[in-house]
Amino acid sequence: MGEGLIILAQAGGGVTDTGAAAIAAGLVYGLAAIGPGVGIGLVFSSAIQAIARQPEMAGQTRTTMFLGFALIEALALIGFVLSFILQGAGG
Predict the structure, then answer these.
(1) 13 secondary structure, DSSP code
(2) Has residue 9 been placed in a domain?
(3) Distance between CA atoms of 5 and 87, rounded to whole angstroms?
(4) Domain contains 10
């Protein structure tokens, strides 16, 4: 597949900085979304299990769950912003 992309790039006038930056930005955000996606799933899964085991601690567990969610979501936003920074650097 890599050879096919090189052939297409050569036929279309070569690899430009704008094109490379666009690919890099897409890869950065795509890969940056994997970690927070898994993390959010684990946080909510653990919170549901904790509330099911000790319903009397539901309030405290819910507070901790939302705090963890906010911190994990910040990682996804950093990846999102980084993709725009890379997009601006290439073009």
Answers:
(1) T
(2) no
(3) 20
(4) no
